[in-house]
């Protein structure tokens, strides 16, 4: 496998790095502390093409490959994982899902605006009683002829209060089990659609996470994505690609923490020398760098599989499983390298450590990734 990056890949990576350093770094600590959504920054990310990177230019997208997306996600996540989850949901769950499976009308109406970041989207699968066990949908979409009557509650929805377009998974025919589930495009402001309070989170505190309540919301039939009963497969297929985005987010959190640890170890002196001269610190950095390189290769492998139309369910799950573990381990060690300074906000590593944890939970927990991987291995 040759992961020689092209000129275009390197340009995307450099643009994302520059944007992260100049636009995201200032204020990232404050946004985390006050749970402030990076609205201005997301708008600029849209203008720079980061919100619909892989979308066909005919729908206003960047027409880029998944490798470019991984590289950009890593750079943005090094600095601000709250901004990168907004980017990831919009790119790989909402834009990709509509472009791959939506009707031409849906693409014209929604995708053309989602791809530029003019509006952002949310992906609503999880419910209070259906997280990992995603087929146990309690939200119902009753078929009423020319519309669906939507009732139920979704929880933990990223971009919950900032999105304009919500892809909502709901059960139409219980007797058919997962084959009776549909994916519907719900617009913010539809009558009967309410947004619950913002969750007060451990990490990615700049992103907004909400419960959503639907009471007799009338969703026109033309807002269903794909054929009747395709909703669960839609969700699974979309999440397979989404996991590459979250794997790259985890990779970025790890590499951001590692870079800070290297820098600090050359500045801080203890026992008359820079702490980087102590072998215990050197070995930590060696372990971090090795794990990060392995995580990066898994992310690129999964992206390459997707770009070459090979099966990427297993490689994406492997990338997410491994990169999220590396993010957790690396950030804990980066705090350790910083000593007491690592425990306070100014040095960034404590935030990266808090942000890392979610990558082992959302878009399928690490246990769920192992289920996906082992089913592929044994089939
Ligand atoms: N593509 C298309 N179809 C797929 C698929 C895929 N990648 N994976 C499974 N399916 C299909 C199966 O073929 C099956 O259909 P048939 O019976 O017709 O063959 C159907 O889906 C059901 O599959 P399973 O029998 O494997 O279902 P299961 O109940 O055993 O569950 C699971 C499988 C992998 C555990 C799944 O429930 C799952 O992924 N759970 C985790 C949910 C999750 O990731 N949630 C994330 C929410 S979004 C989010 O978190 C966003 C964010 O934070 C930012
Ligand atoms: P549970 O499914 O109850 O799991 C609890 C524990 O049991 C976990 O450790 C799990 O791995 C384990 N477990 C469960 N089943 C098994 C099994 N069969 N074998 C082994 N172990 C198992 N969802 C959306 O739809 N859209 C979003 O935008 C979104 N954003 C999120 C943002 C945040 C900040 C958070 C916290 C969550 C978000 N989620 C979103 C929800 C997320 O996808 C779920 O939290 C996740 O899928 C786990 O579901 P759960 O929380 O119900 O945990």
TrEMBL record:
<dbReference type="InterPro" id="IPR009100">
    <property type="entry name" value="AcylCoA_DH/oxidase_NM_dom_sf"/>
</dbReference>
<dbReference type="InterPro" id="IPR046373">
    <property type="entry name" value="Acyl-CoA_Oxase/DH_mid-dom_sf"/>
</dbReference>
<dbReference type="Pfam" id="PF02771">
    <property type="entry name" value="Acyl-CoA_dh_N"/>
</dbReference>
<feature type="domain" description="Acyl-CoA dehydrogenase/oxidase N-terminal">
    <location>
        <begin position="6"/>
        <end position="118"/>
    </location>
</feature>
<dbReference type="InterPro" id="IPR009075">
    <property type="entry name" value="AcylCo_DH/oxidase_C"/>
</dbReference>
<dbReference type="InterPro" id="IPR006091">
    <property type="entry name" value="Acyl-CoA_Oxase/DH_mid-dom"/>
</dbReference>
<dbReference type="InterPro" id="IPR037069">
    <property type="entry name" value="AcylCoA_DH/ox_N_sf"/>
</dbReference>
<dbReference type="GO" id="GO:0050660">
    <property type="term" value="F:flavin adenine dinucleotide binding"/>
</dbReference>
<dbReference type="InterPro" id="IPR006089">
    <property type="entry name" value="Acyl-CoA_DH_CS"/>
</dbReference>
<keyword id="KW-0560">Oxidoreductase</keyword>
<dbReference type="Pfam" id="PF00441">
    <property type="entry name" value="Acyl-CoA_dh_1"/>
</dbReference>
<dbReference type="InterPro" id="IPR013786">
    <property type="entry name" value="AcylCoA_DH/ox_N"/>
</dbReference>
<dbReference type="GO" id="GO:0003995">
    <property type="term" value="F:acyl-CoA dehydrogenase activity"/>
</dbReference>
<keyword id="KW-0274">FAD</keyword>
<feature type="domain" description="Acyl-CoA dehydrogenase/oxidase C-terminal">
    <location>
        <begin position="231"/>
        <end position="377"/>
    </location>
</feature>
<comment type="similarity">
    <text>Belongs to the acyl-CoA dehydrogenase family.</text>
</comment>
<keyword id="KW-0285">Flavoprotein</keyword>
<feature type="domain" description="Acyl-CoA oxidase/dehydrogenase middle">
    <location>
        <begin position="122"/>
        <end position="217"/>
    </location>
</feature>
<dbReference type="Pfam" id="PF02770">
    <property type="entry name" value="Acyl-CoA_dh_M"/>
</dbReference>
<protein>
    <recommendedName>
        <fullName>Cyclohex-1-ene-1-carbonyl-CoA dehydrogenase</fullName>
        <ecNumber>1.3.8.10</ecNumber>
    </recommendedName>
</protein>
<dbReference type="InterPro" id="IPR036250">
    <property type="entry name" value="AcylCo_DH-like_C"/>
</dbReference>
């Amino acid at each position: 496998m040759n992961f020689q990056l092209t000129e275009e890949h390197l340009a995307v990576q450099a643009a994302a790095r520059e944007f992260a350093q100049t636009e995201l770094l200032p204020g990232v600590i404050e946004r985390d502390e006050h749970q402030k959504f990076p609205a201005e920054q997301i708008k600029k990310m849209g203008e720079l093409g980061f919100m619909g990177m892989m979308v066909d230019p005919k729908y206003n997208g960047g027409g880029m490959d998944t490798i470019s997306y991984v590289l950009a996600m890593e750079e943005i996540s090094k600095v601000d994982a709250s901004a990168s989850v907004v980017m990831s949901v919009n790119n790989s769950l909402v834009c990709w899902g509509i472009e791959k499976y939506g009707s031409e009308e849906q693409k014209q109406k929604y995708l053309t605006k989602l791809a530029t970041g003019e509006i952002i989207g949310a992906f609503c699968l999880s419910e209070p009683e259906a997280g990992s066990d995603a087929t146990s949908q309690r939200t119902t979409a009753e078929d009423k002829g020319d519309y669906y009557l939507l009732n139920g509650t979704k929880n933990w929805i990223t971009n919950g209060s900032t999105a304009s377009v919500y892809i909502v998974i709901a059960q139409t025919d219980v007797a058919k089990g997962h084959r009776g589930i549909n994916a519907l495009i719900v617009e913010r402001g539809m009558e009967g659609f309410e947004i619950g309070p913002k969750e007060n989170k451990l990490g990615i505190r700049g992103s907004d996470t909400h419960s959503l309540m639907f009471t007799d919301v009338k969703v026109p039939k033309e807002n269903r994505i794909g054929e009747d009963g395709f909703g669960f497969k839609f969700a699974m297929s979309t999440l397979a690609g989404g996991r590459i985005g979250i794997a790259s987010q985890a990779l970025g959190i790890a590499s951001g923490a590692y870079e800070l640890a290297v820098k600090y170890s050359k500045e801080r002196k203890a026992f008359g020398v820079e702490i980087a001269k102590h072998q215990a610190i050197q070995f930590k950095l060696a372990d971090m760098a090795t794990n990060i390189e392995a995580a990066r290769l898994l992310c690129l492998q999964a992206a390459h599989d997707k770009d070459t139309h090979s099966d990427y369910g297993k490689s994406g799950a492997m990338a997410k499983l491994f990169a999220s573990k590396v993010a957790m381990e690396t950030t804990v060690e980066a705090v350790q390298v910083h000593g007491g300074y690592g425990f306070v906000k100014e040095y960034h590593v404590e935030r990266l450590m808090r942000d890392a944890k979610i990558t082992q939970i959302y878009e399928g927990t690490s246990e769920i990734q192992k289920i996906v991987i082992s089913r592929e291995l044994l089939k």
